[in-house]
Amino acid sequence: MSVTGAPDWLEAAYVRAAQEAKCTAPRERIEQAAAALVERWCSPGRICHGLKHLADVLTRVDELAPGTQAPPLVRLAAFYHGAVFDDDSEAADAEDGTADGAEADTADAEVTALGPVLGGCNREDAVAGAELARRDLTGLGLAPDRVERVVALITLLRGWRPLGPDPDSAVLRDATLGLLAHEPQRYTEYIRQLQEENPGLTRRAFLERRAALIEHLLALPSIYGSPGAAEWESSADQNLRAELARTRKAITALAVLDDDAALEAEQTGSPQREAPVAV
After folding, report:
1. Residue 279: what pLDDT?
2. Gap between the Cα atoms of 23 and 258, Å rounded
3. In degrees rounded to 5, what are phi and psi of residue 98?
4. Hey, where are the domains in the chain?
5. Which of helix, strand or coil describes residue 85?
6. What is the DSSP string of 143-187?
7. CATH class of the structural domain 8-268
């Protein structure tokens, strides 16, 4: 293992995808890029979106790959989609994108309008990840049109919206959202890790962001867009609805505690503090 804790197959998978995508750089340079990329996924703050998440996404991409038109480009996009981790959990989620033409205008308008709703509590920076992919893959000799395709695939993840007839984008999106269909116990652990990964958010802010994102996802015609992921729909729907019910209950309980604390502070002159509530 060239990176502590990283399975050997991760770097090998990147090298294979780069070569299948027709990168012209020597294998040694591709291996160096792979090692640097995997190391990015090992940063200490990645409690939820770390190496395990990357491996899971790549595994799901492989599972759904028969429905793609350019599997190597989808795999490369998966490697880069969360390679840049935002160290500021309060950072804006609506930076300018890099997709082309009207597609980019639509994506940017939607992300700008929904803001933190789409970002939820996910600190992966898709825009920065897309730019990293552009620099790396250009340096590795990938054809410009293929580089921009990888960039567009990553950028389109920002909206979590229904997709048009683009099987590659649908597969990448579904692979990243596949965790929503985990068995209940594992899903609960994912939520716990996600909160731990956001120490800059108060308990109430975390819950409110999660509730907004869940409501947005449940309002979509379907959570998944690729044929291979259709069987995940029911489990994801159940997990999201159960989490939303718990989250709304916790938000209500916090509001009551806040009201009581505000009244006590007014009566005693003591500072008001937010009380933690378990979901």
Report:
1. 37
2. 57
3. -130, 10
4. 8-268
5. strand
6. -HHHHHHHHHHHHGGGG-----S-HHHHHHHHHHHGGGGS-HHHH
7. mainly alpha
Number of other CB atoms surrounding residue 115 within 10 Å: 12
Helices 203-218 and 233-268 pack at an angle, to 10 degrees, of 150
**Tokens 């990888």, located at residue:** 150
Mean pLDDT, range 254-279, rounded to an integer: 53
Residues 50/41, Cβ–Cβ less than 8 Å: yes
DSSP state of 66: G
Q: Report percent pLDDT > 90 for the chain.
A: 67
Looking from the CA of 51 toward its CB, the CA atoms found within 13 Å total: 17
pLDDT exceeds 80 at position 221: yes
The confidence score (pLDDT) of residue 189 equals 96
pLDDT in tens, 55-108: 999 999 999 999 899 999 999 999 999 999 975 333 333 333 333 443 444 445
Residue 279 and residue 203 in contact, taking contact as beta carbons nearer than 8 Å: no
Closest CA to 219 of 204, 205, 240: 240
Give backbone dihedrals phi and psi of 85, rounded to 5 degrees, phi first.
-105, 125
| 3-state percent helix, strand, coil for the chain, nearest multiple of 5 | 65, 0, 30
